């Protein structure tokens, strides 16, 4: 996948977005858009503001500027409100609840929903994506391996039946084999469920292999936008802005 399908429309539009923590400003007038049903990679060096951007999109930090989701202005909404709008966030570090079982963690992801039959169907769907979670559904989440906890975190987000899935460094601390498996599932989720996905990822080569479009952040500003193919092809730009070579 290198470009969105013809006829896609804008699902998320971000304009002049500012965000930070207390007096520390992290995002400085960020503007970009994400097409409906696409995978969008957010790339950039450490400290560029990628995590803060995802937190801004799900209501975790105060923002100034415009966030238009599927035609509605949502800037200033709380995380709970954003979840009810179908925005699911998988934070860096996974954030699973260790003492609870795998099944209990998954059901927590569906807390805003009232369609019991749909929740049960989605639980089966998550187990189909991640069979190891079915095998360990009665085990405490804290006993899972790092890769299994990342699967659980993504599975819990899917229980919301999200319209937009935000993934923050999903490969962090995982083996290359597990990372490839996870990104393959992200691709499948996007293709089968038509879920819009925004992924922050240090492994630019891997992120661009599943993305339709990409935006590069540097010191809180978008410095480059394009299709994944365009970003991959521009080695001089990726060396300058990312600090490493994006493999072909």
From TrEMBL:
Domain ABC transporter, residue spans: 12-244
Family annotation (SMART domains): AAA (SM00382)
GO molecular function, one term: ATP binding
One Pfam family recorded for the sequence: ABC_tran
PROSITE patterns to which the protein is assigned, alphabetical: ABC_TRANSPORTER_1, ABC_TRANSPORTER_2
Keywords: Amino-acid transport, ATP-binding, Nucleotide-binding, Transport
Keyword Transport: yes
InterPro entries noted in UniProt: AAA+_ATPase, ABC_transporter-like_ATP-bd, ABC_transporter-like_CS, BCAA_Transport_ATP-bd_LivF, P-loop_NTPase
Family stated for the protein in its record: Belongs to the ABC transporter superfamily.
Protein name listed in UniProt: ABC transporter ATP-binding protein
Organism: Nocardia lasii
């Amino acid at each position: 996948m290198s470009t969105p399908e013809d006829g896609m429309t804008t699902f998320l539009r971000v304009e002049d977005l500012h965000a930070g923590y207390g007096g520390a400003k992290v995002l400085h007038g960020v503007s970009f858009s994400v097409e409906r049903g696409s995978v969008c990679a957010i790339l950039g060096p450490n400290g560029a503001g990628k995590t803060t951007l995802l937190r801004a999109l799900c209501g975790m930090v105060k923002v100034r500027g415009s966030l238009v989701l599927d035609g509605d202005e949502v800037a200033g909404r709380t995380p709970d409100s954003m979840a009810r709008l179908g925005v699911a966030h998988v934070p860096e570090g996974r954030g699973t609840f260790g003492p609870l079982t795998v099944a209990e963690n998954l059901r927590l992801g569906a807390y805003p929903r009232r369609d019991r039959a749909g929740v049960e169907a989605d639980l089966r769907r998550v187990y189909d994506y991640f069979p190891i979670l079915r095998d360990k559904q009665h085990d405490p989440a804290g006993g899972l391996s790092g890769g299994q906890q990342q699967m659980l975190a993504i599975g819990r987000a899917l229980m919301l039946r999200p319209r937009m899935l935000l993934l923050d460094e999903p490969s962090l601390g995982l083996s290359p084999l597990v990372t490839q498996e996870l990104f393959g599932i992200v691709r499948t989720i996007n293709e089968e469920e038509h879920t819009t996905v925004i992924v922050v990822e240090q492994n630019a080569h891997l992120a661009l292999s599943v993305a339709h479009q990409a935006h590069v952040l540097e010191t809180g500003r978008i410095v480059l936008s394009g299709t994944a193919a365009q970003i991959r092809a521009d080695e001089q730009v990726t060396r300058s802005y990312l600090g490493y070579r994006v493999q072909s």
